[in-house]
Amino acid sequence: MNYASILAYVNPTAMTWAQRLKRAFNIDIHTCAICGGAVKIIACIDDPVTINKMLSHLNQIVL
Ligand SMILES: [Zn+2]
Fold it and tell me: What are the residues whose beta carbons fall under 8 Å from the beta carbon of 27, sequence distance 6 or more?
């Protein structure tokens, strides 16, 4: 257990979103699920209208 994990255990509010996703869902947002390469966060979208538009568009195309 590394220092960040110990700190997150003692003070859950100290966890980053990446740590929460890894802990709760075993999702590693730092590694590409397809090629295993490093992933860099370039934006954070939190507007519900924009999120719905993007998800609707993705449902219309084949990935
Ligand atoms: Zn990739």
Answer: 21
**3 vs 48, more confident:** 48
Query: 31 C-alpha to center of ligand 1: Å?
Result: 8
Chain-centroid distance of CA 5 in Å reads 17
Using a cut of 0.70, tell me whether the model's pTM lies above it. no
Question: How would you label 13-27 residue by residue, b for 16+ Cβ within 10 Å and e otherwise?
Answer: eebeeebeebeeeee
CA of 63 to the centre of ligand 1 (A): 13
Looking at residue 61, what DSSP letter applies? S
Rg of the chain over all Cα atoms, to the nearest angstrom = 15
